[in-house]
Amino acid sequence: MKKMIYILLGLLFMGIGIVGIVLPLIPTTPLLLLASFFFVRGSERFEVWFKSTSVYKKHLEGFIRHRSMTLRQKVTLLIFSDIMILIPLILSDSLIVKVILSLIIVYKYYYFIFMIRTVAVRGDGQ
């Protein structure tokens, strides 16, 4: 049952990630990373299948292999995650929660700027 839930979550995040290819507001890379995570947990067959898809090869394989992203991928991901973090940051009355969320934002920018290389758009869509 647990493996089936992982597979269903993998399919869900893959589907949303594919929608993100067309709609620039939805970050494709993190959703496909989630899909990959759930497929690995759910089934080796689904993991192998997912890694053989053109969606994986075009949008995720470069990041997995080279730990690099295009500037557009980074900006899209950072903006999306900022919105998700800012909602509880604004709504929370707790100073501790606000400090922790602020530290997460600062660390996130540090990580994306200094730990993940920024590459030019590659011919394979990356």
Summarize the SSE layout with pairings.
Elements: H1 2-22, H2 28-42, H3 44-52, H4 54-59, H5 61-66, E1 68-70, H6 71-91, H7 95-114, E2 117-119
Parallel strand pairs: 1-2
Helix pairs in contact: 1-2, 2-3, 6-7
What does this structure look like?
- The chain is mainly alpha-helical.
- Helices cover 78% and strands 5% of the residues.
- The chain has 7 helices and 2 strands, in the order αααααβααβ.
- It has helices spanning 2-22, 28-42, 44-52, 54-59, 61-66, 71-91, 95-114, and strands at 68-70, 117-119.
- The chain has a two-stranded parallel sheet.
- The protein is globular.
- The model has no long low-confidence stretch (mean pLDDT 87).
Short description:
The protein has 126 residues and is mostly helical. It contains 7 helices and 2 strands. It is globular, with a radius of gyration of 16 Å.
Tell me about the biggest sheet? 2 strands, parallel
Q: What's the Cα radius of gyration?
A: 16 Å
- Strand ordering within the main sheet: 1-2
Beta-strand content estimate: under 5%
How far the N terminus sits from the C terminus, by CA atoms, comes to: 36 Å
Helicity range of the residues? over 70%
Low-pLDDT sequence parts: none
Overall number of strands: 2
Describe the global form.
globular
**Can you give the mean pLDDT?**
87
Number of helices: 7
Q: Summarize the helix and strand pattern as letters.
A: HHHHHEHHE
- Secondary structure class reads mainly alpha
